[in-house]
Amino acid sequence: MNMRLILWIMRHAMWTVWVLWTIIGLSEEGALKQTSMSCDPVGACDGHSRSLGTIPSGLTEAVKQLDLSFNKISHIRETDLQTCVNLEALLLQSNQISVIEPNSFQSLKNLKRLDLSNNILSHLLSSWFNSLSSLQVLHLQGNLYPQLGQSPLFLHLPNLRVLKVGNNNILELQKQDFEGLSMLEDFEIEANYLQKYEPGSLKSIHNISHLAVSIKEPILLPDIMVDLARSLQCLELRNTDLANFDFSLPSDASSPLIEKIIFRKVQFTDKSFAEVLKMYSFASELLEVVFEDCELNGIGNWEDVSLSKIENQGKMETITIHRLRIKDFFSFYDLSSVYSLLGGIKKITLTSSKVFLVPCELSRNLRSLEYFDLSDGLMSENSLENSACEGAWPSLHTLNFSQNKFKSLEKVGELLLTVKTLTHLDISKNSFDSMPDSCQWPKKLKYLNISSTKTYTVTPCIPQSLEILDISNNQLSDFHLHLPHLKELYLSRNKLKTLPDAANFPNLVAMNISENTVHSFSKAQLESFQTMGSLAAGGNNFICSCEFLSFVHNEQALLANILTDWPENYLCDSPFQVRGKRVQEIHLSFSECYRGPLVAAICSFLFLLALLTGVLCYRFHGIWYMKMMWAWLQAKRKPRKNIDREICYDAFVSYSEGDSNWVENFMVQELENFDPPFRLCLHKRDFVPGKWIIDNIIDSIDKSHKTLFVLSESFVKSEWCKYELDFSHFRLFDENNDAAILILLEPIEKKAIPQRFCKLRKIMNTKTYLEWPRDEAQQELFWVSLRAAIKS
């Protein structure tokens, strides 16, 4: 029992060791694969996501871009990058870096981009950046440092244009933090829990194109705006709760030059939204306001008292709202309190915000509106009837109703007749299905987008005034519509099988018919579009016929000039052997190109050959030779005659039907009536009925002592007897016996005997034969000789 337990433990231990050894081996193999780093010829080295614990050794001056992001690097030594004197980009984000030695970047005088974001740096040293005079992009956000260094970090970075700093531990911004910076194109500060802002901290930066500030509480926002009043062009506020926002500035504050404000993931209330409107009034140069992924906890009850303080309506022209959430959506007011502030707005984008109605009065107050985007909403014909009331949008030229709830193309066109200035209309991604035969549209309409509307046919409902039509991604199988002013036509992702007729578009400049079921097109078709400069026709099911390939290979210059997606998107769909290959690269053989004509030619040749063979066989008795060959083969399969065979007849008579009178009335009478009588075998009399003729002939010859051949002109003219009796000649002569007796019934020239009876001609030349005498006195001697020959 103990021995069995010991053996079990040993087996278990060996199995455990083997498993561990395998796992260790696989881990080492995986680690080897992960730690490898690849570099291309231009000096770009990719080592991201390789589980690296340190910066790889062996880096040379040839390295210009080094990506070591998403690894496990924790320490950067002064010698790690010492040889990378030509390095221009160093990406170290998303590692575990906690220590960077003071002079680690000293040799990187050509460095233009440095990313140290999302590490665990607890402090920042100015010595890191003292030698980086060429640096243009610096990312430091997402670390653990509580402040931006004990001394100014950026004094020696005169070319810095993009700076991203901050984290949730930043509680204070000081004047010294941004000393040395004079101009930034993109500036991001992440300070969600900022508690103190020293006035003047950002004032030293004279020009900031875009500043993104992530801050939870907006209490310090007015101080920041005062410092940036004369330098900032675009302010982006992120992740801010404006519930308690109170916009107030010192009386001596100058009007800011800011042109654009972006609110991203910002929460508003009715009160704070009114404060924002006051800020909009204060920024006299403001042109655009953007709200992205914001939330309004209110019902739009903006008191007239607050709004009455807004005296200056400013220069704002553009309002953009993406994915605005309103909690009490169905209790929301009609916005009538802000109508007066919207008269100068020229462009409004309001998407993915569940908009189902634009009140008629609001539409009328949008007197300067030129561009209105209401895509991805809940607008329908019923709501549009109210929105597009008489006097609505008097200056509007572009309207986007893409991805709403419209169903009637005819109704939409009719309702928009009130918008007399409309030139561009996008109603794509609605469900129109069918298209009526006629529609009414604004007279100035030039652009119409009805793509992705499940349309399966086009009718004269399409306005004749169009210059641009997009009807892509539908179910169209043909397009026969005359549009005399059309310049651009987009028909991609339909079911068209050929290019539209060029006569319908005399002014067409550009067309896209990609991803349809077009099989081919020709030079004549392309040249019929006399004004067209560009065509996209890739992604179709091209049949690479010889005619199409000939056109492609002969007109390379034409195709390269007019096809915008040539040659990469032009692939063969058939024949099967070239499917998926580029049309430009295919060359078919002669037999593949002309298979039909080639097959027809071969069949014609074979027919003529068969006809010629038949004529030749008839002329030179080929059929007879074939019959003889077949008979010979059949005879070969029969057993040879043996000495002890049974003899039933004295002679087998082979004769022509033309000589049957002589045989039956003379020969038979003379021989069978002789004493003793001779027994003759005649095919008419003695062949067994129902038995195969060849078997009858063979059996009769085998049972006969001799074979008599009655030769005459009739014999020759009738092609020397019937086939059955011809075989008897063949059989006898093939066995080379002397049982044949030739009787010449009348004189025959040997030349008259056909060549196919070669053995018969040979026998007549080598053997004697009996000749039937015309003199009756000599006939008795003939019979005596014949009887003697038969008995011999």
Automatic annotation (TrEMBL):
InterPro entries per record: Cys-rich_flank_reg_C, Leu-rich_rpt, Leu-rich_rpt_4, Leu-rich_rpt_typical-subtyp, LRR_dom_sf, TIR_dom, Toll-like_receptor, Toll_tir_struct_dom_sf
Membrane protein topology class: Single-pass type I membrane protein
Keyword Cytoplasm recorded: no
Top-level taxon of origin: Eukaryota
Signal sequence, start to end: 1-21
Domain (TIR): residue spans on this chain: 647-790
CC terms in the record's Gene Ontology section: cell surface; cytosol; Golgi apparatus; membrane raft; nucleoplasm; phagocytic vesicle membrane; Toll-like receptor 1-Toll-like receptor 2 protein complex; Toll-like receptor 2-Toll-like receptor 6 protein complex
A Pfam family hit: TIR
Compartment(s): Cytoplasmic vesicle, Phagosome membrane; Membrane raft
PANTHER family on file: TOLL-LIKE RECEPTOR (PTHR24365), TOLL-LIKE RECEPTOR 2 (PTHR24365:SF17)
UniProt function note: Cooperates with LY96 to mediate the innate immune response to bacterial lipoproteins and other microbial cell wall components. Cooperates with TLR1 or TLR6 to mediate the innate immune response to bacterial lipoproteins or lipopeptides. Acts via MYD88 and TRAF6, leading to NF-kappa-B activation, cytokine secretion and the inflammatory response.
Protein name: Toll-like receptor 2
Name of the coding gene: TLR2
